[in-house]
Amino acid sequence: xxxxxxxxxxxxxxxxxxxxxxxxxxxxxxxxxxxxxxxxxxxxxxxxxxxxxxxxxxxxxxxxxxxxxxxxxxxxxxxxxxxxxxxxxxxxxxxxxxxxxxxxxxxxxxxxxxxxxxxxxxxxxxxxxxxxxxxxxxxxxxxxxxxxxxxxxxxxxxxxxxxxxxxxxxxxxxxxxxxxxxxxxxxxxxxxxxxxxxxxxxxxxxxxx
Length: 209
Prior knowledge:
Blueprint: E1 22-28, H1 33-37, E2 46-51, H2 60-73, E3 81-85, H3 97-109, E4 113-114, E5 117-118, H4 121-126, H5 141-152, H6 167-180, E6 193-194, H7 196-204
Helix pairs in contact: 6-7
């Protein structure tokens, strides 16, 4: 008798993780910084798996396909969450914005969550250590990275030190990002800001919260 193929659990005994923990899977167009950043969250209640970009496949459609593949390959629980994390950067420029809008719409239809940053993930890191005035426009990631260097005395996305992003600083970043999220309810920040706060709020919630 042929038994149906059972998909493996994404987390289990082999990595010392209890499967009753909720799982958050993040597909990102970045290769280094987000994966290192989310190491600061060591909650036994929620486990985070980051799917970084490899081989230069950073276009929105490629990033979403990594979530699709993960969902196909693993047995996900009802309360596990899949998140699409993109930089608006040049994706919202005239030659790319139609594709960006399409990918965001498809992701929402599939039940994925969105955590985009304008212009890039580094604005989320900057909000840990500095205020960004409402209406201030940082249109290029190079501008944001320079501000990070000015505040921190240096920044290298290939060797991000998670210790410099404490949980207390993450709570400050959530507060600052929420204040910048105007108008709320959009699929990505319309001005300088980051929707990564929507994800991090979940990670900062106390057990039972």
